[in-house]
Design a protein that fits this description.
Lyase, Ornithine Decarboxylase, Chain A, domain 1; alpha/beta; single chain; elongated; 356 residues; 21% strand; binds pyridoxal-5'-phosphate
């Protein structure tokens, strides 16, 4: 067994989760979101597992798309941030990389590039309330006409919008966004895309032609106070490490930096080789669950750069070099994130450095 921090990626779990997604959205095409280094799972680990089971791959940056082409990926790829200048547009055209169009400056560049090496596919982003990227509902009809008439743009274009509050099934914001989007695009000859994971899981009216699942593919839930297993999803990532020391501490002993944790009674404490330098959140407080030998134990004291301390009261037989799971199928990343005051997305994405 490998000692120390280890990241395991379960490609079969990725494929299982795609199957679950297809059960929820059997008639839709899938734009699999693999941005942020495959949500921290390693872009290539993810792409090699899913690419025969989805219809396109979504990355944030052109670099990632070009890298995938260099590695021989022929699948459709969409750059969510689009292109920033004529050179990037040309590269996308040459490499058959699809782009999101979201600002007027991109239209100017498109206008000046009437002769592209090859026709390009575009995803036309409309702002229906997220107020991040996209054209306003007022601007959109003229932009639609421009894109339809542009000879370098392959048809059909895909009209898309992004939800702000889809993880809250009681929030009418999503209804409003869906309605705004359909009202606007009703007469358009386009394919349509609205749903992220939360849309797929809770808003059937948002499924349309293309879904854009991210987090659920990795086995985590986008919804607060739930985990992927509530939806038959399987955790893809396991972050584990090993125990490097065990000590018996007395009542009143204080543990770690700042001496912020005081033992309420005599206890065995394991020191585990993981810390914020490995992507484990420093904000995780005492009491955050940690899995050891099929038992849930509790973190005690502050998280150090390469070490944490764990109360072994629930697992008195633990030994040096025993495996410790920080998150994975045994312990949902969403739970750990809740303790740490963040979301599973952030903890998963933080692991991307393993693959750089
Ligand atoms: C990241 C992203 C998604 C996926 O979101 P999840 O909540 O992870 O499913 C979908 N659409 C866009 C535009 C995104 O940026």
């Amino acid at each position: 067994m490998t000692l120390g921090p280890k990241l395991h990626i379960d490609q079969a779990a990725l494929q299982h989760n795609i199957k679950v997604i297809k059960e929820l959205a059997p008639h839709q095409s899938i734009l699999a979101m693999v941005k942020a280094n495959g949500y921290g799972h390693g872009l290539w680990n993810v792409v090699s597992a899913v690419h025969d089971h989805v219809n396109a791959l979504g990355v944030a940056r052109l670099q990632d798309a070009l890298m995938l082409r260099t590695r021989g990926v022929t699948q459709r790829i969409v750059v969510m941030n689009g292109f920033a200048n004529a050179a990037e547009l040309k590269a996308c055209s040459e490499q058959q990389i699809e782009v999101v169009i979201h600002i007027p400056e991109q239209l100017t560049i498109l206008q000046e590039c009437t002769t592209l090496p090859q026709p390009i596919r575009v995803w036309f982003k409309i702002n229906t309330g997220m107020n991040r990227l996209g054209f306003s509902v007022n601007e959109a009809p003229a932009v639609y006409q421009f894109l339809q008439n542009h000879p370098g743009i392959q048809k059909p274009i895909v009209a898309m919008t992004h939800f702000a509050c889809a993880d809250d099934f009681d929030n009418d914001m999503t209804y409003d966004q869906v309605e705004t989007f359909y009202d606007l695009t009703n007469d358009w000859e386009v394919e349509r895309s609205l749903a992220n994971s939360a849309g797929v899981m809770g808003w059937t009216e948002s499924l349309a032609d293309w879904i854009r699942p991210g987090i659920m593919m990795y086995g985590a839930s986008p919804l607060p106070h739930s985990s992927g297993s509530n939806f038959d999803l399987k955790a893809v990532m396991t972050l584990s490490s090993t125990i490097i020391a065990i000590h018996d501490r007395a009542k009143g002993d204080k543990i770690g930096y700042g001496s912020v944790y005081e033992c309420p009674a005599a206890m065995r404490v394991a020191i585990v080789a993981i810390g914020y330098g490995d992507g484990y959140p420093r904000s995780a407080p005492s009491g955050t669950p940690v899995w050891i030998n099929n038992k849930i134990c509790k973190l005690v004291g502050r998280v150090s750069m390469d070490l944490i301390a764990v109360d072994l009261s629930n697992c008195p037989d633990a030994k040096i070099n025993d495996k410790v799971v920080l998150w994975g199928p045994q312990l949902a990343v969403e739970t750990v994130a809740d303790y740490a005051g963040t979301i599973g997305y952030e903890l998963l994405c933080g692991m991307g450095y393993f693959y750089r």
